């Protein structure tokens, strides 16, 4: 007897996409708030949320390609990384201090986003394979 999973691959893909979007909204909002104040941080979080929702809709209508979701997500991941690196390189500190300062950012944001993107991509490939394979 084989147990059927309680969540479909589509539901799991939506949950993963939501988790990625929440991570992006939080991180970009916090970085902008730290640089220019809380009001700009809130505005940037709303912009990231809007762009993410728009890109998800485009990815759904795009059929086989998930580039509309992956490219903005990678962009919103790379920009905070560059901002963090820029701020760390501007400090008078040794390389070990920079690594220690960057580690929570990598563990708390970059690594989870990359792992979730890998899961999202795999679920998308599975859905595409199941849709394209002929049923007996």
Task: Provide structural commentary.
The model has no long low-confidence stretch (mean pLDDT 81). This protein is mainly alpha-helical. The protein is built from four helices and no strands. It is elongated. It has helices at 9-36, 38-61, 67-89, 95-132.
Task: Describe how the helices and strands are arranged.
Blueprint: H1 9-36, H2 38-61, H3 67-89, H4 95-132
Key descriptive features of the protein:
mainly alpha, 136 residues, 83% helix
Major sheet summary line = none
- Estimated radius of gyration: 18 Å
Shape: elongated
Number of strands: 0
Element order, helices and strands? HHHH
Strand content: under 5%
How confident is the prediction overall: mean pLDDT? 81
Instruction: Please report the distance between the alpha carbons of the first and last residues.
Output: 21 Å
Low-confidence stretches: none
State the gist of this model.
This protein has 136 residues and is an all-alpha fold.
């Amino acid at each position: 007897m084989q147990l059927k999973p309680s969540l479909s691959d589509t539901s799991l893909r939506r949950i993963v996409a939501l988790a990625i979007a929440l991570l992006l909204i939080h991180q970009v909002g916090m970085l902008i708030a730290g640089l220019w104040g809380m009001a700009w941080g809130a505005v940037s979080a709303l912009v990231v949320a809007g762009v993410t929702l728009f890109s998800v809709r485009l990815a759904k209508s795009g059929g086989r390609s998930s580039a509309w979701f992956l490219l903005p997500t990678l962009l919103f991941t790379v920009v905070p990384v560059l901002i963090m690196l820029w701020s760390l390189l501007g400090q008078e500190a040794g390389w070990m201090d920079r690594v220690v300062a960057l580690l929570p950012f990598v563990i708390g944001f970059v690594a989870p986003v990359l792992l979730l993107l890998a899961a999202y991509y795999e679920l998308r490939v599975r859905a595409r394979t199941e849709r394209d394979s002929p049923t007996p």
